[in-house]
Amino acid sequence: MTNLRVAVVGAGPAGVYAADTLTKSDADVSIDLFERLPAPYGLIRYGVAPDHPRIKGIVTALQRVLDRPQIRFFGNVDYGVDLKLDDLRQFYDAVIFSTGAEKDRALDIPGIDKDGSYGAADFVSWYDGHPDVPRTWPLDASQVAVLGVGNVALDVARILAKTADELLVTEIPDNVYQGLRTSPVTDVHVFGRRGPAQAKFTPLELRELDHSPNVEVIVHPEGIDFCAHSMATIRENKQVEMVVKTLQEWAIRDVGSRPRRLHLHFLEAPVEVLGDDGVEGLRTERMELTGDGGVRGTGEFTEWPVQAVYRAVGYLSTHLADLPFDHSSGTVPHQAGRVLDLDEQAVPGVYVTGWIKRGPVGLIGHTKGDALETVTSLLQDAPNLSRAQYRDPESVERFLAQRAIPFTTNEGWRRLDEHEIALGAAQGRDRVKVVDRDEMTGIANR
């Protein structure tokens, strides 16, 4: 097929990697990326903690992809609201969905819905300046619990524990700085139901906890326990070995006098959030290793006097209009990236990649393998795909204009990017994010 026209819905890393893989193929292809936010990069911009500049460096590589002549960016276009699958089929021979996962997975324990109990993803969206969340966040707890031991849990714990002035060198918006500045927090407790060898965070993420001059990291030694399965995991996985070594060293060191404390508790399973009108405590059950990678309860319970609880037990994708969806896994059913209908037959010309395809697991780089598999399937199918009716690239712009959608482009994103960098330069910072959606689109479309 000559002049293969492809729409990619979602301009986070998964969508950009899919576009990158397509443009590097031998196909004569043109690609339009659609993103519901005015700016690209998805969780790189709105899901990575602001004190992670190394991870945010991935943006440079992603921007080089967006700048390729075969690729266009349409921001501020919400799939399922501004357009649907039938609309895309008018203009494109194939559609790849790469909408990721940004909602919180539920945790089914009593009291989890009390006032003062939050999803980590919502908090991350707030401190990252997501345009669709409130500008304020209730930071009135002196003791806080974070449930989960993945990278997101450590990000949340670190942001809660650090002082606002430490974060002022980053790109956090002013409303986030003002909110964190008045936080009375003294202790942040991170709870994991399994042992240290089963923790899901990376060695780098763990070590970064200990970099703050204001936060004392305390590993509670009663949770440092290993079974035969744990020891085998340590021997076989270098990253696990590094994590365990760091935790063991921290568990035996003397506790210092920094004004805030970040506690790491392993083998403590949350079983109930306590309180009448709001969070007044957390009950956990002491766990023990079973020798096969699992744990079981011991019947020994502890109550922790916390006033806020953040669950960081995983992300969940959102059901997309006109597509099948597996609600248990939070993914679109597929075979090698080809979307499958209820009869498990491939839907012609419709594909998925990234977390909406495989679930919210793995690191950012893992989406490259997803993209390669999906694009390979698409290119294999290309000769037999139905041709879109309207092939003039300008017809897409006319369609969006007729619907009065104030979409942004790559050039507009560049203007917004330069504006944020200028705001940061005036304060001696790399960037200050613009938060309001209308302000973002206004700057982009000047």
**Can you give the mean pLDDT?**
95
What share of residues are in beta strands? 15-25%
Distance between the termini: 38 Å
SS field, number of helical segments: 17
Radius of gyration: 23 Å
> How many strands appear in the DSSP assignment?
18
Query: From the 3D coordinates, which CATH architecture of the largest domain would you assign?
Result: 3-Layer(bba) Sandwich
Q: What is the CATH topology of the largest domain?
A: FAD/NAD(P)-binding domain
The CATH first-level class of the largest domain comes to Alpha Beta
Can you describe this structure in just a few lines?
The protein has helices at residues 13-23, 43-46, 53-56, 58-66, 85-91, 120-127, 151-161, 164-167, 174-181, 203-208, 228-236, 238-252, 355-358, 367-381, 393-402, 410-425, 437-444; strands at 4-9, 29-34, 71-74, 94-97, 103-104, 117-119, 143-147, 187-192, 215-219, 260-266, 268-274, 281-289, 295-304, 308-311, 315-316, 334-335, 338-340, 346-352. With 446 residues, the chain is an alpha/beta fold. The strands form four sheets. It has a seven-stranded mixed sheet with strand order 3-2-1-4-18-17-16, with helices on both faces. It has a six-stranded parallel sheet with strand order 6-14-7-8-10-9.
